[in-house]
């Protein structure tokens, strides 16, 4: 993936969680994902009632498989320290960020913010979605106890500084003539996988999980124990160590919530069969209609008409299908053709 694709990957993951909130418990999978990643920062498992802005920002990195360049933390102060250790900290409040950069805030910033450098303790963090002119649009967890948007001016009040992940290190720093090291397969995107591997299920399949461990990322070396049973396939990462992401089904006996080995799955599509195409990451779909800014149907944009590849898929969301990096669209308006 290119640097811009990696940046968009982080942004799209954050967009997919827009609207998750404490009041109905939809923020819990974010906390669970953070806690499943080992080693935990400072060994502390985040509670559902804790402040979770840094946890959200870290979960986006975990889901993208980019924790080598984006540190994970549950506290803003420590988060800034880790960006500094990586050499990825930007102290200049007037810096113009790019999509996928991390922006930190200090709510005690003074009235003279435009001409001074804020050096206070950071209180909050978000992920830059875009910059248009002099306006920064940010996606933040724990914003009024939910995932939401904030807009502020470049060099605006309360900006503490920026964490700048070195996306180029993932894609362009290999010696000439050698293969670059790709990012760990993300939890929401596997590139094009129109042709499923032998025995590989598709997103949406309900399978019987026979294993005893699940993993925080598709290439993790170790993972916590879990119970076997019935689970649903939610994401795929072809070619990874643990290529299938499962979530346990209610009443099915399993406690799985993470990436698992293909060998630990029964009831997957058999090799040689040709099932009707299902909505999934990598599917080809026909769509005619408007694009939306996030998976909850906010920010209607321009209309498109054509055949596209599904880059991200969130079943059950109002606009849970992300096509060709263009935007989010409703699954009900898509026709799967491959």
Low-confidence stretches: 171-198, 269-274
Which H/E pattern describes the elements?
Answer: HHHHEEEEEEHEEEEEEEEEE
Number of helices: 5
CATH superfamily of the largest domain: endopeptidase domain like (from Nostoc punctiforme)
Helix content: 10-25%
- Computed structural class: alpha+beta
CATH topology of the largest domain: endopeptidase fold (from Nostoc punctiforme)
Judging from the principal axes of the Cα atoms, what is the shape? globular
- What share of residues are in beta strands? 25-35%
The strand line-up of the biggest sheet is 1-6-2-3-4-5
Number of domains: 3
Mean pLDDT: 83
Radius of gyration: 20 Å
CATH class of the largest domain: Alpha Beta
What does the oligomeric state look like here? single chain
Extended strand count:
16
Distance between the termini: 23 Å
Largest sheet: 6 strands, antiparallel
Label the CATH architecture of the largest domain: Alpha-Beta Complex
Report on the structure:
It is a single chain. The protein has 338 residues and is an alpha+beta fold. It folds into 3 domains: 3-168, Alpha-Beta Complex (endopeptidase fold (from Nostoc punctiforme)); 185-275; 284-336. Helix content is 14%, strand content 25%. The protein is built from 5 helices and 16 strands. The protein has helices at residues 3-16, 28-36, 53-64, 76-85, 168-171, and strands at 89-90, 102-105, 124-132, 135-140, 148-153, 159-163, 206-209, 229-236, 244-248, 257-260, 265-266, 284-292, 300-313, 321-323, 327-329, 335-336. The strands form 3 sheets. The protein has a 6-stranded antiparallel β-sheet with strand order 1-6-2-3-4-5. α1 (3-16) crosses α3 (53-64). The longest helix has 14 residues, at 3-16. It is globular and about 65 Å long. The model is unreliable at 171-198 and 269-274 (pLDDT under 50).
